[in-house]
Amino acid sequence: MRFQLCTASLLLLMISASSAQVASHPQAPRPETSETLPAAQMQAAVVNDKPVVRVNGTVLTNRDLVREMFAIFPYGQQHNGFPKSMEPEIRRGALEMIIFEELVYQEAERRKMEIPAARLNQAQADFKKRFSNSKQYQEYLKMDCQGSTQALRQKIRRSLLIEALLKTEVEAKSAVSLAQAKAHYVKSPQEYAHGESFSIQTISIIPPANPSADVQKEARKRAEDALRQAKATKSYREFGLLAEKLSDDDWHVNMGDRKTMDADKLPPPVVEAARKMKPGDISELMQFGTNYTLFRLNEHTLPGRAKFDDVKKELQSNLQKSKLNEIRSEFGKRLRKNAKVEVL
User: Is residue 184 part of a domain?
Assistant: First the structure.
């Protein structure tokens, strides 16, 4: 389960691949993260050790902030920076997250939580494996740990403590049972309600703008020939291959498949015709201005509500995410209530 916001924690990102991952970063761990960027990339983002915030006396630096900014916006890794229009918001989010994580870490220390040595050793070994080569690993140690493996070990311990406390205070309290999901489903009749929809494939013959009589006549002939061939198709695939060959509309590259569309998004003549058809039927030729269209009906869904069995996993997951974010937010407020946070 992940949180909505991104975490600045180096190792929550990199060593939690096999854990429950209660870190707030929304992406899966990856071999090269903001913590393992080459020095040149980090320097391009104007990284230094200038203090940016003090949390109960502990100073967090610009390096911590930029690292989290890359975690929030990993695309910046490819371009050595952030879009100017987005940078202030990314920076604000990153600052809030590094403050939150420091408060969580301090609370874990206050509770005298411990990480078993065996787990710490394994995490350290796993972290080293995430680097492409020894040079990259040594570069990271030099840049962020003053070349000290002991300093790295402390970073790992810090991240694991954050992870452990979040599991206890947030993840463990955010579970939503199937019965709770069902109760929500019953109490919210409009949720998962849907209108009438159709799934169709189309073949369209589109002459040039302002066609002459002869050009329009030729388009009609092509359309009638397309209809004849379409009527002979027996499957989604056969119709789709024909659409790829004959159709002039933009969907011909997708076998003419328009996917599922709400009835109110389709032209009324198409809806009227589709309501009289069965899945697999081919419509008659329809003219819209100078264009000709025919379609295959793949599915017709009447207005209604999705069955609970069909949506229970999604509903349970959505409710749990919502509850998790609420609990995390409240936990953050409690931690900050008596904390001294000074933005420098």
Answer: no
Say which CATH number the domain at 67 has: 1.10.4030.10
Query: Do 166 and 226 share a structural domain?
Result: no
Based on its alpha-carbon atoms, the radius of gyration of the chain, rounded to whole angstroms, reads 29
Q: Give the Cβ contact number of residue 269 at 10 Å.
A: 13
**238-245 long-range Cβ contacts below 8 angstroms, 24+ apart:** 239/201, 239/203, 239/282, 239/296, 240/201, 242/203, 243/201, 243/202, 243/203
- 173 CB-near residues (< 8 Å, 6+ apart): 327
Q: What percent of the chain has pLDDT over 90?
A: 62
CA–CA distance, 294 with 281 (Å, rounded to integer): 11
End-to-end distance of the chain based on CA atoms, in angstroms? 33
The burial class, CB within 10 Å (0-12 / 13-18 / 19+), for 183 is: exposed
Tokens (6 digits) for 340? 């001294």
Contact 83, 112 (CB under 8 A): no
Q: Tell me if 207 is assigned to some domain.
A: yes
* One domain for residues 164 and 217: no
* Cβ–Cβ < 8 Å for 175, 322: no
Instruction: Provide the residue type at 281 as one letter.
Output: D
Write the CB contacts of 53 (distance below 8 Å, at least 6 apart in sequence).
59, 60, 95, 98, 99, 341, 342, 343, 344
Query: What's the pLDDT tens digit per position in 224-276?
Result: 999 999 999 999 999 999 999 999 999 999 999 999 999 999 999 999 999 99
Report d(CA 268, CA 287) in Å as an integer: 13
